[in-house]
Amino acid sequence: MLVRGLNDIATRPGHEPIHQEETVGVGFEDKAERMGDYMNDEILTAAGTKLGLSRRVFLQFCAGVAATLGLPADAHASIAEAIATKHRPPVIWLHFAECTGCTESMLVAEHPAIDELVLNLVSLDYHETLFAGAGHQAEAARKSSMEANKGKYLLVVEGAIPAKDSGIYCKVGGQTAVELVNECARDAAAVIALGSCASWGGMPSTGPNPTGCVGVGDVLKKQVVNIPGCPPNPYNFLSTVVHYITYGKLPELDNQGRPKFAYARLIHENCERRPHFDNGRFVQEFGDAGHRSGWCLYKLGCKGPETYANCPSVLFGDAGGGCWPVGTGHPCIGCTEKGVGFERPIHGLADLKFVTPSAASSRVIEEQGKGVSVASAAVLAGGIGVVVGASVAMAKNLGKGHLPEHTQHGEE
Length: 412
Ligand code: FSX
Ligand code: SF4
Ligand code: F3S
Prior knowledge:
The chain is of the alpha/beta class. It has 18 helices and nine strands.
């Protein structure tokens, strides 16, 4: 797992550090090895065997999960012990209106391969994409697992639920998605909505939404754990499950049902292009000199300033540094944020939330134009107390005059 140093990333005013005393991240393999020094070898061996992992890889996995969860050092040991000694929770995994990218993103992860983890960390009793069986055989497996594990299984739902016209637009085994999700949720210990589609409707609910797609929570009329993203980061799902196994409860959620460990910070806070934003260096159009130099993508419509997710910290696909949308040069479309992703125009300018000047900012006038940067506007106006006003002023500035022609009509 690639977890960038969560505490290497500057903490912005108004936010608590995730765990200041613990610098995990770039060097966490070493930390994992040190952890092995004080952990019971039998536990490590048992847990590693259970997951089909070597001792070293297992230690790295525990350290990586603890880092994603923002837990302190001794949490690694608790995680390892829980995995070694506790029963694997049975999981019923449903698919509805979606592209199956959520499962796909899990299957391409490495360090260790997440497919091994999913299969060994939990007891995957029903999963339409991965099942060898089909038809009556598969449905029988689901029903017998639900019966045998009443109140103990986790229900994971991928995809939105077409609810219009009594749900007739999506059926599996003769039952509508609405019926299935209600039936499977009834005796579940917890319900996890995986991906933006399951969380609030996501892409299938984009207007005019002819099948009336909604999220799982809307159908069940209760709070479920939402792990949005299109696709969601597999480690956010995995860490949620490990938290459940280790502590017997779900992680703390925000007001949209998202685990706080993953969705408490704006992408803009931890983005590697942030110094360019603070200093007024903006890409004007794809492929220009600024784009090739890694400048800020705000003017291309990047929604990082209003989207909460840990994408820049946890990264995707274990392919190396920079492997996340903004890292590869594409603006964030806000896929984890209800009301932003799939609703707002991709090229439209983001609302700037909690934008505060960086201590490192030195420029007063934007390099690209006449506008004043947030940092300089705040300084000019006399301090932090007027940062909100500075943000508004900057949003106005950024929205006018500097945009390439094709983005001038975007939402501002
Ligand atoms: Fe949705 Fe997932 Fe996007 Fe796709 O299952 S969150 S369309 S990646 O596949 O649900
Ligand atoms: Fe990064 Fe986007 Fe914020 Fe620019 S606007 S710093 S590219 S998140
Ligand atoms: Fe989605 Fe933006 Fe992250 S598009 S994957 S929330 S960078």
